[in-house]
Amino acid sequence: MNLPVWIARRYFFSRKKRSFISWLSILSMLGVGVGTMALVVVLSVFNGMEELNRQIFKTFEADMTVAPKQGKRFLASPDLLAKLRQTPGVSLLTAIAQDNALARYKNAQTVVRLKGVDDNYVQRQQLDSAMLEGKLLLRRDGVNYAIVADGVRSDLSVSPVDILTPLEILYPQSGQSFNVLNQDAFNREAFTVSGVFFIESKYDNFVLAPISSARALFDYKPNEVTSIEIQLRPGTNEDKAKQALQDVVGENLIVQSRDDLNLDLYRAIRVEKLFVALTLSFIILVASINIFFSLSMLVIEKKADIRIMYALGATRQMVRRIFLTEGAIIALTGAISGLILGVGLCLAQESYGFVRMGMVSSIIDAYPVRLDTSDILLTGALTIVMTILTSWFPAQRAANVR
Questions:
Q1: Which parts of 219-315 fold into alpha helices (H)?
Q2: Enclosing H/E stretch for 225
Q3: 3-state class (DSSP) for residue 126
Q4: Which of 152-156, 261-265, 273-277, 320-324 has the highest mean pLDDT?
């Protein structure tokens, strides 16, 4: 066995003499382990929150969205739609006409986000799992139906069972002076509510309706849209598809992926993740400083042993390696234990959901977690590097003992 490693093990694992320095080393190891475990768990929770938001957005938003760079509407010519359908990877196109409007139901009213969609929107099957009541229906037998969010249902006391009471949508006429007392200043469309959906609070003011009715409300031309939503075939490379679609639509329109539409939220999550990781790294650094003090005290305690080793022919490099190995034992034991416990807690949370969200309106019961190999490797490397660096100075001090 390597002599410096053997001596370092004897210093750390000796059971015959448990001094204050030994207990301080054990406490340092526990501090490193707890800090490492906390860092793994917190990073995994942030990864889970990011993945949860992706799943939420996937329920309502398309893979790709074509929108104008300036203004809020553009002309989607049949030629443009044909070229988009022929783009490799494209599965389904949905024309969208969307804007704010006023909704009335019986004696209640509220501002909603009216989203007019093509009939093929139902084929996307995105809202199937989000329906709370009723069914996903937009048009049947010449009757226009509306699908409302749970927030709209709560504000207006909408009942999909009541097919006799219409949901009335009002939108100011273009070219008319706005006057709430002038009833003729608004375009109106009436819908029968067919269903209620719930995703999360971001979409609680949405009302889905046929695009023909939305165009009539907004005074749009037959081919005018606010955006074109595109569903890709499974397995399609999103980056390549995005570039191909951008080449088709030209410079006046922009193609955005689902992540592009929610870039601010993802950026906020990552910034918060970074600051929390830095905070926990400082905690690990404090535990590493404890290793520095414990090794420094060990050097003082073992001065006689060091002199004996020098008398027996040991070199400064060997003595330095003994105390570096001592620090490495503390660091590796704490880091590996923390990583194992952190990964185990995350796997248990992912499987059984021990820690609950504590929110009645949450769409999930437990905190989401997602283990990322890069986070685990980075945490382990960061912990080991910090602890080894703090071990260097006491080891150098031991090597200078005469």
A1: 238-249, 258-261, 263-301, 303-311
A2: strand 224-225
A3: coil
A4: 152-156
Instruction: For residue range 215-242, list pLDDT tens digits in order.
Output: 999 999 888 999 999 999 988 899 999 9
Other beta carbons within 10 Å of 293: 15
pLDDT at residue 71, as a whole number: 86
Number of structural domains (the chain) is 2
CA dihedral 338, 341, 347, 351 (to 10 degrees): -150
Which tokens sit at 142?
A: 């010449």
Does the structure show a pLDDT above 50 at 131? Answer: yes
Token pair in block for residue 26: 């054990």
Residue 260 included in any domain = no
Phi then psi dihedrals of residue 353, to 5 deg: 65, 55
Contact by Cβ (8 Å): 195, 79: no
Considering the domain architecture, whether residues 210 and 342 belong to the same structural domain is answered as: no
State residue 360's pLDDT score. 46
Do 285 and 168 lie in one domain? The reply is no
Amino acid residing at 261: L
Measuring CA to CA, which residue among 49, 351, 71, 97 is closest to residue 211? 97
Residue 256 lies in a domain: no
Q: Tell the burial category of 350 from Cβ atoms under 10 Å away from its Cβ (0-12, 13-18, 19+).
A: middle
Query: Whole-angstrom Cα distance, residue 173 to residue 35?
Result: 61
pLDDT at position 202: 86
Q: What would the pLDDT profile of 145-175 be if each residue is shown by its tens digit?
A: 999 999 999 999 998 888 888 999 999 887 5
Task: Please report whether residue 288 resides in a domain.
Answer: yes
d(CA 155, CA 204): 10
Percent of the chain with pLDDT over 90: 30
Secondary structure percentages of the chain, helix, strand, coil, to 5: 55, 20, 25
Tell me what the pLDDT averaged over the chain comes to.
Answer: 83
Per-residue pLDDT reduced to its tens digit, 167-194? 999 998 875 555 555 566 788 999 999 9
Show the domain range for 287. 3-58+265-399
More confident residue, 255 or 332: 255
Same domain, 240 and 277: no
CA–CA distance, 206 with 28 (Å, rounded to integer): 54
* The two structure tokens encoding residue 255: 């193609």
Residues 6+ apart with CB under 8 A from 399: 316, 317, 319, 320
